[in-house]
Design goal:
Low-confidence stretches: 160-169
Largest sheet: 8 strands, mixed
Order of helices and strands: HEHEEEHEHEEEHEE
Number of domains: 1
CATH architecture: Alpha-Beta Complex
Number of helices: 5
Shape: globular
Strand content: 25-35%
Number of strands: 10
CATH superfamily: YbaK/aminoacyl-tRNA synthetase-associated domain
Helix content: 10-25%
Structural class: alpha/beta
CATH class: Alpha Beta
């Protein structure tokens, strides 16, 4: 297991109680949920976006849902686009590509999280590798993200379809 040092430090600073769940290698938040035998709606997926002047924003949604980009753009009152993976390497140096923990403040990044986490009892986050999830209570997740706004920023997933509309990630 290789937990992001930034995430580990942030959890320690906040005195957050957590445990870890190891699983077989996965390449997506949904696959991590399946491999860990946890509901995908409890796995927080980080989607990193940027505005036209390169301000970054982490949107956190359940793994079983898709980001509703137009709604998020209305909330932040700015056009947004998905950040490229090569742009994120420097921002998430202690994470493997595609395994970004869904806690923006741990990486000095603004974030907004989906209202579906308001009533979630357990939340699982990527640890920064492709074999570990960090498990926190829903209450702990809300405490860790208490200075970040939340809203209804996701919509149902389209399943296995490939969505070519940049309105949903």
């Amino acid at each position: 297991m290789t937990m992001s040092q930034n995430l580990s430090r942030y959890l320690a600073q906040k005195q957050a109680s957590y445990d870890t769940v190891t699983h077989t290698r996965s390449s997506s938040a949904v696959q991590s949920a399946i491999a860990s035998h946890v509901p995908s709606k409890t796995v927080a997926k980080a989607v990193v976006l940027k505005d036209p002047v390169d301000n970054y924003l982490m949107a956190v949604i359940p793994a079983d849902r898709r980001l509703h980009l137009r709604v998020l753009e209305d909330i932040v009152d700015a056009p947004l686009k998905l950040a490229e993976e090569d742009e994120l390497i420097n921002k998430f140096r202690d994470c493997k590509t595609g395994a970004i923990p869904a806690v923006g403040p741990a990486f000095n990044m603004d974030m907004i999280w989906d209202d579906r986490f308001l009533s979630t009892t357990d939340v699982y986050l990527e640890a920064g590798d492709h074999e570990t999830l960090v498990h926190v209570s829903g209450e702990t997740f809300r405490d860790l993200t208490s200075h970040s706004p939340h809203d209804q920023i996701s919509r149902p997933s389209k399943g296995e379809e490939i969505d070519t509309d940049w309105d949903a990630f």
